[in-house]
Amino acid sequence: MMQRQTAPPRRAYTLAWGGHRLELGVRTCVMGIVNVTPDSFSDGGRFFESNRAIDHGLALVDAGADIIDVGGESTRPFSASVDADKENQRVIPVIAELARQVSVPISIDTTKAAVARRALAAGASIINDVSALRMDEEMGAVAAQSGVPVILMHMLGSPRTMQVKPAYTDVVAEIRAFLAAAVRRAVDSGISQGLTVVDPGIGFGKTVAHNLTLIDRLSDLAELDVPLLIGPSRKAFIRQLLKAPSEADMPPDSAAVEIGTQATVAAAVMNGAHIVRVHNVANTRKTVAIVDAVRQAAD
User: Fold this and answer.
1) For the segment 222-238, what is each residue's pLDDT rounded down to a tens digit?
2) CATH node for 27-298
3) Tens-place pLDDT, residues 21-35
4) Which of 130, 222, 118, 205 is CA-nearest to residue 162?
5) How confident is the model at residue 77 (pLDDT cuts 50, 70, 90)?
6) Beta partners for residue 127, in sequence order
């Protein structure tokens, strides 16, 4: 008789801070993306105007987003950085207006303490730092003083260099060690471990094979004992897997890439993701409802 295969267990966590509370474990949390940038890989310029970004954020909440993630600097491969003043000009009006109109927590996607500080004052209540507190030595103190959750992501190098021949001996073991060190760094900065979330950084210094391995073995990161976030939405590895041999690339917002995104979301949730960061919240809400139901049946 064949042994019955079940999804790896997903630990339950509660993120509670300020006036917010997120129960993670039984139901997958969906984070909706608002890029207030002229050059993001998936929707560059589409929501660059504040009014359009605000309307998009409101639409994501209506579609079922549990968190809205607002960013003012592209982190696509080979992108250049922008200064804190320009980043603030982009995100602060959007965050302030969204905070006035919605009750879900708003995350500021930044590596800069000056931007995080202004965003928190404007109404943001989560810091999403793709550098895992490495690019700005003041970021840990800002988070600790504010008492907000911090998302710590793995990235190989910087956005400008991360996709230049990324290589690992053991991609899962190395990223697990990196994230363990990131959590320790956060705790040493005064941030409660109960307010840390880790993200393996799909597409941030990884080949197609690296990304697929991370999704397949996401449960190996459970030993970090913090919630797991994953952001595969519209990433290049999906487009590379789906494009025809004659195509140089696929439009990131195409229907085919959206199907690929939802497939990776389903696989990630089956393997233990607590939060998924996506562009299309409505489709993802449906995907995770089914996968969560399957997980509960297996339990």
Assistant:
1) 999 999 999 999 999 99
2) 3.20.20.20
3) 999 999 999 999 999
4) 205
5) low
6) 108, 150
| 146, 191 contact by CB (below 8 A) | no
Enter the tokens of residue 198. 């880790």
Nearest-angstrom CA–CA distance, 269 and 250:
25
Alpha-carbon distance of 190 to 184, in angstroms, equals: 10
The answer for residues whose C-beta is within 8 angstroms of residue 241's C-beta and 6 or more apart is 208, 260
pLDDT tens-digit map of 162-216: 566 778 999 999 999 999 999 999 999 999 999 999 999 999 999 999 999 999 9
Task: State yes or no: pLDDT of 279 exceeds 50.
Answer: yes
CA atoms within 13 A on the CB side of 212: 9
Among 36-40, 124-128, 172-176, 192-196, name the one with the lowest average pLDDT: 36-40
Which active-site residues does the annotation give? 235, 277
- The predicted model scores a pTM of 0.93
Domain map of the chain by residue range? Answer: 27-298
Phi, psi of 174 (to 5 degrees): -70, -40
Sheet containing strand 29-35, strands side by side: 196-199, 150-153, 126-129, 106-109, 67-71, 29-35, 275-278, 229-230
Contacts of 217 (CB under 8 A, 6+ apart): 172, 271
Residues 104-108: contacts with CB within 8 Å, 24+ apart?
A: 104/61, 104/65, 104/66, 104/67, 104/68, 105/20, 105/22, 105/66, 105/67, 105/68, 106/67, 106/68, 106/69, 106/70, 107/31, 107/67, 107/68, 107/69, 107/70, 107/151, 108/70, 108/71
Q: How far is CA 101 from the centre of its chain?
A: 23
